[in-house]
């Protein structure tokens, strides 16, 4: 297991000189390797002046430079929320293009059950525009749509600060822990018990260090997001952990069961939790998922259905470069509806790849991505009321008992 990120949540304009010792200390304090130290700010439209919506480059550069000098590797500027002026959405491509350390997001559904169909269409257009910033379409790594996502998750791009004094949280990369727990079991109950025990043991070690850091630097820790994030090799694959339970391959019947089973084990574990603390199924970050997508046995609709019982939604999905705004908007509408009806946080990080069609090979010179193929999207243009902008409030699902 590694620590994917130690994420600091704070107001972006504070004097950060007193925070630099903390940022230096966290890199080597934990009993697990720390990959990055990150900053999550309050939503940038709340602290940038209104004229920055049309010319965000200067503030983006200044923010990146100031916090990199303090010891931050990556910065999440937070979401354009539903109540923000839609003009801020059009600033996102320039922000992403300004510095490769800046992440930003756009809300398509709020935590109150509100769903904005017009935002889905607008964000679909933004995704297409961001895909052309770099020849390989890599820009959308730094952008995601959020649905029903509260502040406080240490994973990027979703991370943002609710405001107030600084805090920090831990995001782990722990799919290997799940794989070993399942491989060493003979039965489902034993697999679950092994996983719960492994999570609690690892979380205990992390929190012992986190509490000591919090006391020393007077920055509270608000928990661990123990989502079982993967790394693109088979020994650290969450798809591999699902298949170790007995699936012929992820995407086969029974996959939703395995997704729910593993997620429920995370929920059983006792540790100070924050963020998603669920199953993370990013196609390009997981070697087994990338392989199943390349084989055509794992689809976008499969991944969306698993989100109903587990993790974070649709993440690092390789899509055709010429995908239509209709198709992207349709995917976002599905994510928004699932999140609002289930009252669970979901994200969509969709990556149209210029010049590539469904089935074409995908290979990035990036250590956190596995080779795969472009995934197909069910075709057909949206029409009628689905093309109209509307802000609607959806009730959560009610028990039939």
What attributes does this structure have?
about 400 residues, alpha/beta, Anaerobic Ribonucleotide-triphosphate Reductase Large Chain, 9-stranded mixed β-sheet, two-stranded antiparallel ribbon, 11 helices, 13 strands
Report on the architecture of this protein.
Helix content is 35%, strand content 17%. It is an alpha/beta fold and 401 residues long. The protein has one domain (2-380): Anaerobic Ribonucleotide-triphosphate Reductase Large Chain (Alpha-Beta Barrel), CATH 3.20.70.20. It has a 9-stranded mixed β-sheet. The radius of gyration is 20 Å and the shape is globular.
Q: What's the short version?
A:
This protein has 401 residues and is of the alpha/beta class. Helices cover 35% and strands 17% of the residues. β3 (74-80), α3 and β4 (102-109) form a beta-alpha-beta unit.
Poorly predicted tracts of residues: none
Overall number of structural domains: 1
The total of helices stands at 11
Neighbour order of strands in the largest sheet = 8-7-1-2-3-4-6-10-9
The residue-averaged pLDDT reads: 96
Can you give the helix content as a percent range? 25-40%
Distance between the termini: 41 Å
CATH class bucket: Alpha Beta
Rg, Cα atoms, Å: 20 Å
Largest sheet: 9 strands, mixed
Topology at a glance:
Layout: E1 2-9, H1 20-29, E2 37-40, H2 57-70, E3 74-80, H3 92-98, E4 102-109, E5 114-116, H4 117-131, E6 143-147, E7 167-173, H5 175-183, H6 188-217, E8 221-225, H7 238-244, H8 255-268, H9 287-295, H10 300-306, E9 313-320, H11 325-342, E10 346-353, E11 361-362, E12 372-373, E13 391-393
Parallel strand pairs: 1-2, 2-3, 3-4, 4-6, 7-8, 9-10
Antiparallel strand pairs: 1-7, 5-13, 6-10, 11-12
